[in-house]
Sequence to fold (166 residues):
Amino acid sequence: MSAKLQPASVHLIEVKLRSEFNDAEGAAALALLREQGLSSLKDVRAGRLYEISGSLSAHQAHQAGKDLLCDAVTQEFRLVPTEPAPMNGMNFWRVEVWLKPGVCDPVGATVLEAIAESGLPKPVSARGAALYLLSGRAVKAQVERAVAKCLANALIHRVVVSEAHP
Fold:
């Protein structure tokens, strides 16, 4: 009798500075994006995304976010829902900058090690990405062009731009 394999689950964990803290990385990204013609942007908040695939439950992924991926004093985290957010009228944008498959991801490797050492089930894979939350009216194509010029390198990055809610 063979054991039934459980399908791997994928958890996306978002980590960002709490709103009461100054976001220097977000301010720098805002300046770069404005230089690319997105003058209507009001604010950019930067963060990190971690995609963890494996046999972790949602509770275990939450524990990894809380105990390993987030500084509880200055940062907050959340598990990102898999269903897409409703459209918002082009006032808020979510930009994810991922390394392309085949590009070495030292952050992902470190996350794999840390989760295994914490006593949680070892994931099959982990990847890290930069996250930018943009506030201000813009057109998706404009955001994509600006991000490609100043926040990503087309040779090694894959960029995902979507409407988001604050």
User: Anything to note?
Assistant: Strands lie at 9-17, 43-54, 75-79, 92-99, 125-135, 157-163. The two ends are 50 Å apart (CA to CA).
